[in-house]
Specification:
Elements (H helix, E strand, L loop, with lengths): L2 H21 L29 H12 L21 H13 L10 H18 L6 E5 L2 H17 L2 H5 L7 E6 L5 H8 L7 E4 L9 H13 L3 E8 L11 H11 L2 E5 L24 E4 L1 H4 L7 E5 L2 H8 L30 H36 L3 E3 L7 E6 L7 H17 L6 E5 L2 E7 L7 H13 L6
Parallel strand pairs: 2-3, 2-4, 4-5, 5-6
Antiparallel strand pairs: 1-7, 6-7, 8-9, 9-11, 10-11
Helix pairs in contact: 3-12, 4-12, 5-7, 5-11, 8-9
Length: 472
C-alpha cells in the first residue's frame, strides 16, 4: 500500500468511524448469532496473494461488524464500561502510526517522559501522596500480579527470584469473598498455590470484615504460615462494595503485610473530592491500581499502577542484558523493569489526549453525572412494586432483581430473573449482566457510558419496565 493509497483508505475509515460513533445506537447492542457463525464465513486457509482494501473492508462490514458486541452503545449497561472517547481514539491512532516499542527511555524518550508525567497527573488527581510512583500496566489483573510478585520478593529479600521457592515459605495471601477472580488467577501464577489464598468474609454491605482478616492472619502465623499480602477492593465487581481501607492498612502495618488496593473501576471516582472517603488510609498501602480504560474515557488498555516503594518494584523485575544497557539508565525510568512484559506500547499518549481534552474538572462533571444517573435508577427500583434492591449503591452500579409479590422461593426467584435477563439481552435493544450476592441471582445495571445522558438511561429503564410484567 503506497502512502497515497493509505491516505485515501484512511480518510474513508475515519469517515466510517465518525459515522459509527454518531449512529452506534442504531445497532443491536449484541449480535443475535450462534457460536461458529462468524468462523464459517472465513476461509480455512490464508490467501496466497494479497487482496484489495475494498475486499477486506467489505468483509469487515459484512462479516465482522455483524458479530460485534457494541460496548459503546448507549444501552450497554453490562459488566463495567470499557471507556472510550473521541480524543482517546485519536491519540491511539497516532500511537499506532508511530509504531514505537517503548520499553526504555532510549527507544522513545517522549513515551517514557510523558508516561512519567501522566502518572503524576493521575496520582495527584485521585489524591495519592507524592511519595507514590506510577506506571501504566495493561490491566488491573496484571497489576495485581505485579503487586503479588513484588510482595513475594520484598518479603523473601529477593531470594525467590534468585533461587526459587525452598518449600519453607508457606506464604498466605488474603482477600475478600467479593474480590475479583483475577486475584485467584494471580495467586496461582505467582506460585503461591490457590490453597494459600484466604478468602475473608464480608459485612452486610459486602465489604471485607477487618476483624476476621486480623484473626485469620494471627491464626495462620500460629500455624506456621507467613502472612504476605492483603488485596483489598475499592468497588467490587459484583456490587461496588468499598472495603474499609484504613482499617486494613492498620492491620497490614501492624503485622508486616504488603497491602495492595484494587480500585479497577471505582478508582476513577477518586478525582471527586466528595468520594475520597473511599480511599481513606490508602496513603499507607504499598500498591494501588485503577483503570482509566474503565471509567476515565480512555480506550483499552490503560491501567494506572502506583507503588510506594519504587525500588521494590524495580528490584523484582529488573533484568539487564548487555543489549539493553544505555548511558542514560541511571537518569531515567526504564519501564521494561516495572512489570512483566519487556515490550510496551505508547499508552500514555491517548491518556494525555483525554486529560487535556476534558480537563480534570470536565472529567469530574461527567463522573458526577454518571453517579447521579445510578442514583436515579436506584430510586426507580425502590419505588417500583415487584423490584428489589440487592446492594447499596455508593456509585453508579445498581444491583436489583424481580421479586413478585408472594414469590419467596429463592430457586424460583433465580429462575424468574435468569429468564428475565435473557429476554432483555436477546432483544438486542439493551445489555445487562448478572452476579450472585448471598447466593441470589442479581441483575447489574451500570450507568457509566462515556456519553450517557439521563435520557439514554431513562430509555434503558423503560425497556426494562416494558419487559418486566411482575414489576408493573
Amino acid at each position: 500500500m503506497t502512502p497515497e493509497e493509505f491516505r485515501t483508505h484512511a480518510h474513508r475509515l475515519v469517515d466510517w468511524m465518525a459515522d459509527y460513533l454518531g449512529n452506534i445506537g442504531s445497532y443491536p447492542v449484541k449480535p443475535g448469532i450462534k457460536p461458529g457463525d462468524i468462523k464459517k464465513q472465513l476461509p480455512l486457509q490464508a490467501p496466497e496473494g494479497g487482496e484489495s482494501f475494498e475486499a477486506i473492508f467489505s468483509d469487515f462490514n459484512n462479516i465482522i461488524l455483524p458479530g460485534m458486541t457494541h460496548w459503546q452503545h448507549p444501552q450497554f449497561y453490562a459488566y463495567f464500561p470499557s471507556g472510550s472517547s473521541e480524543p482517546s481514539i485519536l491519540g491511539e491512532m497516532l500511537a499506532t502510526t508511530l509504531g514505537a516499542q517503548c520499553m526504555i527511555w532510549l527507544t522513545s524518550p517522549s513515551a517514557e517522559e510523558l508516561e512519567e508525567r501522566m502518572m503524576e497527573w493521575l496520582r495527584d488527581a485521585i489524591g495519592l501522596p507524592k511519595t507514590f510512583t506510577g506506571v501504566i500496566q495493561d490491566s488491573s489483573s496484571s497489576a495485581t500480579l505485579v503487586a503479588l510478585l513484588s510482595a513475594r520478593e520484598w518479603k523473601s529479600g529477593y531470594a525467590i527470584n534468585q533461587s526459587g521457592f525452598t518449600g519453607k515459605e508457606k506464604f498466605r495471601v488474603y482477600t475478600s469473598t467479593q474480590a475479583h477472580s483475577s486475584v485467584d488467577k494471580d495467586v496461582r501464577i505467582a506460585g503461591f498455590g490457590i490453597d494459600n489464598l484466604v478468602k475473608i468474609g464480608t459485612d452486610k454491605n459486602y465489604a471485607m470484615n477487618p476483624a476476621e482478616l486480623e484473626a485469620a492472619i494471627i491464626r495462620d502465623r500460629e500455624n506456621g504460615f507467613t502472612p504476605l499480602c492483603v488485596v483489598s477492593t475499592i468497588g467490587t465487581t459484583s456490587s461496588t462494595a468499598i472495603d474499609p481501607i484504613a482499617a486494613i492498612s492498620d492491620i497490614c502495618t501492624k503485622h508486616g503485610l504488603w497491602h495492595h488496593i484494587d480500585a479497577s473501576y471505582a478508582g476513577s471516582a477518586l478525582i471527586l473530592p466528595e468520594m475520597r472517603w473511599m480511599s481513606e488510609g490508602a496513603e499507607r498501602c504499598d500498591s494501588f491500581v485503577f483503570n482509566p480504560h474503565k471509567w476515565m474515557f480512555t480506550n483499552f488498555d490503560c491501567s494506572a499502577y502506583f507503588v510506594r516503594d519504587k525500588q521494590a518494584l524495580v528490584n523484582t523485575f529488573s533484568i539487564m542484558p548487555e543489549y539493553l544497557k544505555t548511558p542514560e539508565d541511571r537518569l531515567v525510568n526504564n519501564y521494561r523493569d516495572w512489570g512483566v512484559p519487556l515490550g510496551r506500547r505508547f499508552r500514555a499518549l491517548k491518556l494525555w489526549f483525554v486529560v487535556r481534552s476534558y480537563g480534570v474538572e470536565g472529567m469530574r462533571q461527567r463522573l458526577r453525572d454518571h453517579i447521579a444517573y445510578g442514583q436515579w435508577v436506584k430510586e426507580q427500583v425502590e419505588s417500583t412494586p415487584g423490584l428489589e434492591l440487592m446492594a447499596p449503591v455508593p456509585l453508579n452500579l445498581v444491583c436489583f432483581r424481580l421479586h413478585p409479590e408472594g414469590v419467596n422461593d429463592e430457586a424460583r426467584l433465580d429462575e424468574i430473573n435468569s429468564s428475565f435477563i435473557q429476554t432483555l439481552n436477546s432483544s438486542g435493544k439493551i445489555l445487562l449482566t448478572q452476579t450472585r450476592l448471598d447466593n441470589k441471582f442479581v441483575i447489574r445495571f451500570v450507568a457509566g457510558q462515556t456519553h450517557a445522558t439521563l435520557e439514554t438511561i431513562k430509555k434503558g429503564w423503560a425497556l426494562i419496565q416494558a419487559s418486566a410484567p411482575h414489576s408493573r
